[in-house]
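Components:
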Amino acid sequence: MILEPYDIEVGAATFAPYTFLKCLDCEEWRAAYVQPSRRPADGRYGQNPNRLGRYYQFQVIIQPYINKIQEIYLDSLKNLGIEPVMHDVRFVEDDWESPTLGAWGLGWEVWLDGMEVTQFTYFQQIGGIELSKPAIEITYGLERIAMFLQNKNNVFDLKWNDFFKYGDIHKDDEFQFSKYSFEYSDGKNLFELFNAFEAESKKLLSFKLKELVKPAYEYCLKCSHAFNLLDARGLISVSERMNFILRVRTLAEGCAKLYTGYYDKSEIKK
Amino acid sequence: MLEIGSGELPYDEVRKIPVELKNILQNFFENEAMLSGKPAIEIFATPRRTVVFIKELPLKSPDRELEIVGPPVGISYHGSLPAPPLVQFMKKNGISDHNKIYVVHQKKGAYVACKKTIKGSPIKKLLTDNIPNIVKRTPFKKTMFWLNRETRFPRPVLWILSIFDGKTAPFDFGDVKASNLTRIKYGLSYKMKQVKISSSKDYFDVLSSNGIILRNADRKKFIENKLETLSKKINADIPEYDGDFIDEITGLTETPYALLCEFDKKFLSVPKELLSVVMRKHQRFFPLSSDGGLLPFFIAVADVNPVPALKDSLENNIKSGYSKVLTARLSDAEFFFKEDVKKRPSYFAEETKNILFYEGLGSYFDKTARIKKLGIFIAEKLKFSSGILNNFKKAYGLLKFDLATHAVFEFPEMQGVMGRIYAKAAKENSVVSLAIEEHYYPVSKGKKRLLPSNDLSALCALSDKLDSVFSFAMLKKLPTGESDPFYLRRAMIGIIEIILEKKYRFNISEIFDFYFNGFFKERNLNTAELKKILMNFADARFKNFLISSGYKSDEIMSVLSVEMSGNYYVSFLKIDFLSKFKLHEEIFELAQIFKRINNITYKYADIVNFDKDRLTAIEEIKLISIFKPAKKNSISLLEKSDFTAVMNEMYKLVRPVNDFFDNVMVLTEEEALKNSRIGLLNGILNFLKNFCDFSILDL
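Structure:
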């Protein structure tokens, strides 16, 4: 199933409920979507040829496991115009972990002639809950792959189509959001936003109603983005960092528990 | 022959699997299959396959006779006939004739028993029944599940080939059925094709004809040869050639293919250490050098097996890809370096105020303030020259500045190294610059163990490490289990290595007192308790270090048990002396009198004075007249650590002590006399303890 991007700021496609919540079902789920992803701290004012504060991931999420998935992945490269036999394609150990989502898995970075083009993960745990059926997540770095195909050294030189370049569309975005994230964002407001989003999510979770888990999760995502903005602005010290991560994770884990019926079960136990 | 095909394994697993799996299999054949001989087991691993090959195995495990113990004799018989418990027992074990039952005597009493023959079972069945379990028991570093939680391996298992005596030996492992098929990538396909295997020879032929080098050692050799040939081509050397790095590459390839590639020489203006780390750590390329300087070339090892027709274009693709990726990385490194050298080290040192060392322990800036005071105190203890002290006063504030630089932020493993480079670029003197790098020593580089090269570096290293160990001990964060998240064990071992190598004489306990008199006073710590914990921690590291250097536990403990202040260099000298002279007559006799005294006085350890006037027996007078000068003479000898002479002084006591015991009754009725005798003996015992607790020595 091809889905449209999720419409809230996320740091990676994993954060979209199409992955985070859906994989907790542990049923049949095979979806793909492009996800614009924001990492304010990676912004470089549009000056660095490889680093972006906002970029595109192509996310493939498959549950349960299929045995031939690595070959299917290589087929997908071939379909993109990268003939695997003509390159050094490597699956290099990379165990993925998202402390804010309480999620982790084992897998690889896929290297194409030394360039990391995909993250390939077998999720073992999401939202602090061990999956009964692991999900496979394949995250393609679209800019990297496009640079490889178009033989460009600078992301902004990528041809978007015959008329526009990537830079025509996004260079100014990069500049403006770097300005904002590193120089003009207001710490006080952002802390307040973080607290407000957290409070709203907590409140929604406190009803323990399954029909509120998605709104609760959206506020968890907003919290996470506020945290990323604070982090980019250098307003979170090393010691506070872990604390903020834990606060977001508590929300994410709360959502995962509510979603998977953890509270129903504990009611029955009582 | 067993081949477990899987998704690409981490290189560390590839390296370890052969050893671990071999042990488990050997154990299985010995203890579960009960084979009399040890079969020769060969194990190979590549990222894609784990292979077990056993050339010869019996078809059947041997028959065995087992003794089965039944109920107690007391309840087993009515007269001479079997009672119900015994009847049951015989029935269960298929015995009809009760004359085959006999009696065994065990700790709890007498029991009936019988012999039972366990028929050997076919090895093929034993293996197919047990392989899933054997795989489960293999201590991989980290495993995952892909289907259900029961089936685990480091990466998903994709196929299993299992052949016994020419035929498939079937079993299931998760979703995979073992068969006689392997998988190989053939020439123009990137897909793994199934290939039927009929014999081990067939298997090895198929693999090697497709460029797969199964054996880790052969693959390593192959890579090393290629590295040599390619580097010779341009008369280059491979700097910091290190086995671990080659092992890593070996674990990442099954069809290694080395390529000589180039990068833009404009990057050579970046320090070679930084270039090397980008190449090695981040891209796993081998940098190349000539006459100590880097060349704009590198060697990369791909994992391909090209068909001849496509070889050139494949090589070109890979080379240009590698160069491009490296260029992007080096551009970053160059940018960070150029940004960093725009500012002075002192600017970054100021910035370390914003970098937290640890919650509750302040910033790195705070840490350097503690290092300063500690260093000056230690320098005084060690009577360092004013030259060293002056350099230390320049160095301490620069030890951590590079943590605030871009380069170290991006490449944390470059801490210390970048500090040295930047300090030197800012015209800091070379000893001070070097101390910035070396205060992180000892470190292992390849097979070499690097220690601080001079007293200034050693002083910086000791002060930094002692601060870490003391402050984390205060937070009760000393490691207890396996893990060592704050590297405190490593720091303590480093301290001990430096002390021993540099022959430094000072007491850790004295440094401890100084430290907690000066810092963290407001916390009202129970320093007595803390010191005990810390000294135990330090002693344990010292002991382990010496044991790994070949000293015996009894030698170490005889000294450590009486050395409370952590003067590790002197302790080491004593231990070293004991290890060489332990079997000499003198030591043996000293141990005898030590024990003789201890046996009498251990109940009265607090009586240490004696009234000389009460001790009038001739043996007593003799003993005192020898003890006093021996004790006096030993003081300076101990200070000089002249242990041969100390031993000789102590040895003078052997005869008088023995004469004393042979003729004098210590525990007399008369309390004051008894106490004087005990006081004298304890005085002697404590004197001997200046050397060691002789009673602990294993003689």
